[in-house]
Amino acid sequence: MKRSKRNFLIALSLSVVIIVVILGATDFRKSISYLLNAKPLWIALIFGLSIGSWFFESLTLKIFAVMRSLSVPLTYLFKITVIGTFFNGITPFSSGGQPAQIVIMQRRNISVGESTAMLVSRFLVYQSVITVLGVIAIFGAYPVVSGKISNLAVLSIFGFLINSAVLFFLVLFSLSPRFTAKAISIIVKILGWLRIVKNVGLATEKSLKELGFFHSSMSELMKRPLVLILASLATLAQLICMISIPYFVALSMGIEMNYFEITAVQLILFLVVSLIPTPGASGVSEGGYLLFFRPFFGESIGAALLVWRFFSYYVNIIFGGLATAHEIGFKSKLRS
């Protein structure tokens, strides 16, 4: 808990400092003017896109739950999704979401193996879809926007290679039991040497048992092409919601833009900052947004940054924190 609070404070501090610096470097009065004159209808639609990204991610989990014959309500998976966004937002490399979701689902009598199979299957599909979209964005948008953004090619290729590497190792981890078993044994031994794990033999045996269940789940998934197609479509809808936010931010401020151009740039930015080690990619996200979108927004970039960051990050923290608190309180009531 102390570590989570520390990470949250780091993320909050970095975001606030960078935003203040950016507002100070731009015309502060004009930024406030753009914010005050933003059209409420478009702001409401942006909030709807945030909710839509949560819904489609939870729908992806529901598809995998149905495949495994698990009776898990979509409303509960929606709650789990929002909780995951909260922990992703306060942990380095966005690494805390899935472990938190697994622990919380375990409290609702969903086994670690089942929840892990669902979440990793979802992550595998997510990485596949975003990598394909990244290729489309790089080759489709680069000729159009390269003149507006310096070093776009280097940044976009860097982001694409990182996410492709993650997908490669995830597939290798999922489909190669021998490689994964050796990797887990080495990791558990290292944790034992660091005295994080007390009983190395028991921990290794338990991990390998769960691994066997996980690999059988992944083998089953690969034999279900319809499930993969449905999950990919739901993930595509989730990503479209996420990368469309800058376009509607522009509309809320009365700025007309090309939808394809601005969403492609947002996707490239997302690829670049998705694996930044700071909690919530704080600091880099704001700086990257300024670098990528200033040629599009001009003097309204300060206001656009505030709106975008609020709905792409702080909304996750607010609603994810409330959902986490509610779930912990619900479990406490059950125990009492």
Structure description:
- InterPro entries: L-PG_synthase/AglD (IPR022791).
- It holds the Pfam family LPG_synthase_TM.
- Keywords: Cell membrane, Membrane, Transmembrane, Transmembrane helix.
- It is a multi-pass membrane protein.
- Its main location: membrane.
- The protein has 336 residues and is an all-alpha fold.
- The chain has one domain (2-335).
- Helices cover 82% and strands 0% of the residues.
- The model has no long low-confidence stretch (mean pLDDT 81).
Can you lay out the helices and strands and say which pair or pack?
Layout: H1 2-25, H2 28-36, H3 40-67, H4 74-89, H5 97-107, H6 112-145, H7 152-175, H8 177-193, H9 200-222, H10 225-243, H11 245-252, H12 259-273, H13 284-297, H14 301-335
Helix pairs in contact: 1-13, 2-14, 3-4, 3-6, 3-10, 3-11, 3-14, 4-5, 4-14, 5-6, 6-7, 6-9, 6-10, 6-12, 7-12, 8-9, 11-14, 12-13, 13-14
How many structurally independent domains? 1
Order of helices and strands: HHHHHHHHHHHHHH
Give start-end ranges of low-pLDDT stretches. none
* CA-based shape: globular
User: What can be said about the biggest beta sheet?
Assistant: none
Average pLDDT over all residues: 81
Subcellular location: Cell membrane
Transmembrane segments: 40-64, 76-95, 124-145, 152-173, 226-251, 257-276
Pfam families: LPG_synthase_TM
Main location: membrane
